[in-house]
């Protein structure tokens, strides 16, 4: 705050008897800022004199500020030359001219020295550029003749025009911006060539594998920056916009589930920037790609950078401070890929320390940093938020904040583009890419897996070999290959050293899969995982958290909020299948009795040749006569036996057994005996049976199909018929009490003429319940209802047009409240 003495000055006004008054503040030194100057009292007379005085004071002050700013810039540039190994002399007088700096570089092992005269121009625009270059050139010529200088450089804050650069080049003077001079601290040309070629050409370290650039397909993503949800078809374009946006201070955290393509994306971004830098020498940032999987445990950024500069960049002077100065100047895009792959022996403290080390580079105002990770690496959503936004921590230890960007699963068009590019590059391929596309689409769960680039690539590499060896293309074979190859890829390709062996990991996963599938636990939290590993493998107490983090991060799990789930349902189902298959082969049912197996698991087990164990399955069903409280064991065995051999199973006598949860839909049960058989939660939709087959069976929530015909009103168009039919069926069923109580689902065939076949899937309970419900339906709907096979055959014979194979079935889910 300035201070001064107030003085009142009076003077006569010409041609007047009045006097003018000026109130001045006299400062013992220069005013600190323009506000001090403007605190002059208002004047009623002589405004021109006041204005001129204020202008002189402001100009003087601005001149002083410009000098100070220029001196600061000169000191910054001098520091840069010293880091380059030069000896700097400021404000030296040469040839009767004052030079900002004389920089001397000593040639190692020689007495020879190279002297550079340097001018620093901290200006927002070039003023009289050519004239300045010409004057400096004349001075250089004089100094060269006198042996006092060898070259000249002008360092500017902002770039000058191409014309000025050309004129300087012709005059033998280097005209550089500060950033361009900083870029000379380290030579990254060798490293940039490596990044470009690694993406474009096959690498010796991956013999037999094509270059990533030959089959890369763009990824899509989404972000929630500033609370606004955005989706973008190409993640690269979003990143490019972020790089050009100087107002955005947040760094990027790119999240993706297992196999989403995070590493491939980093390699693509690094390649594009490297190619641009090498091709045009553009002002695009220099890409620096760190694979954090190479730095297991705790990161120490300074030795890591020094090692990187020495090993990968072959820099003659691999110093961290040079790298940091270039980063502070905004010359880099630093990609930290695989933050989650540092999970060996990492706890929450080490995680925070790693982020603090990365913050040494990420917190610089001009820096641009991308961090990739699986979201499940953070054991809770709260830990993730605090990692990305350090301001949420009570004691803030980091400066950089991160905007989360999530990679989206591939759509069908992206899958097709990948297959079209990748399949021809597989050595053993003998078919067109469309053939393999059709093979993938034929298996629904496999089609779902193909939405992740890494998994699709593995499928593509596996399928031709399986086809060549005439191996059945089924899910168990593909999943077995997938799981083992991925663990091998983590250990060898990514040089991972796992704490858990493959056998222990798979055993833990199978038990977890059974618990999740059976519903005893819908998911697992970090604390629950700690307890599981402590109970199952009992690691040292000090390493329990490290073991748990590794298990959750590298075991095909994803995190949503605080809970971990399997990354894909079919992986879960495969692991349950393996558990059940082991139990069938060892005749020791455990998971098999806990879980009600679905159609996918049945398909898995059939492919695993469970048919060889039909004797074991039959004995398990028979054992339920004496031990009825076996949950799903008998029902699962019945489901499998029916899937293995429908004809033989239909002739069995299952009297007194418990078939809870069996799926016998569309089975022919006319030759089966089911006296006193417990059919709780059994699916008999579409099954063919006679009245005596189920007359003495015990039904409880058993699903059975009932058939009837319904008149519909005429309509002009086929679409109109469907709408009218749905309306009429809804009205009809809503009036029927037994339907409202027991209906599970209704459907009808696309109407022919003015009549349609309606199928009601009903919930039946109790002995003789089927006949009772059929009678109630006939009374309430005033129409005949078929449920037994002979009744169905008679209805089909009377109205064959309603049962044509090409007849389209229209389902009305949620038709009525239950």
Structural overview:
With 818 residues, the protein is an alpha/beta fold. Among the domains are: 59 residues, no CATH class; 114 residues, Trna Endonuclease, Chain: A, domain 1, CATH 3.40.1350.10; 213 residues, P-loop containing nucleotide triphosphate hydrolases (Rossmann fold). Helices cover 45% and strands 17% of the residues. It has 31 helices and 23 strands. The protein has a 7-stranded mixed beta sheet with strand order 9-8-14-10-13-12-11, covered by helices on one side. The radius of gyration is 40 Å and the shape is elongated. The N terminus and C terminus are likely disordered.
Per-chain topology:
Blueprint: E1 5-12, E2 19-26, H1 34-37, H2 47-83, E3 86-94, E4 97-106, E5 113-121, H3 129-146, E6 151-156, H4 162-170, E7 173-177, H5 178-182, H6 189-200, E8 221-223, E9 230-232, H7 235-244, E10 251-255, H8 262-280, E11 286-291, H9 301-311, H10 320-328, E12 332-337, H11 348-362, E13 369-373, H12 381-388, E14 402-407, H13 412-422, H14 433-442, H15 444-449, H16 453-468, H17 475-493, H18 502-518, H19 526-536, H20 544-553, E15 557-560, E16 563-566, H21 569-586, H22 591-594, H23 599-607, H24 614-626, H25 633-644, H26 646-650, E17 678-680, E18 683-684, H27 691-694, E19 698-700, E20 702-711, H28 718-734, H29 737-742, E21 743-749, E22 755-764, H30 769-781, H31 789-798, E23 809-812
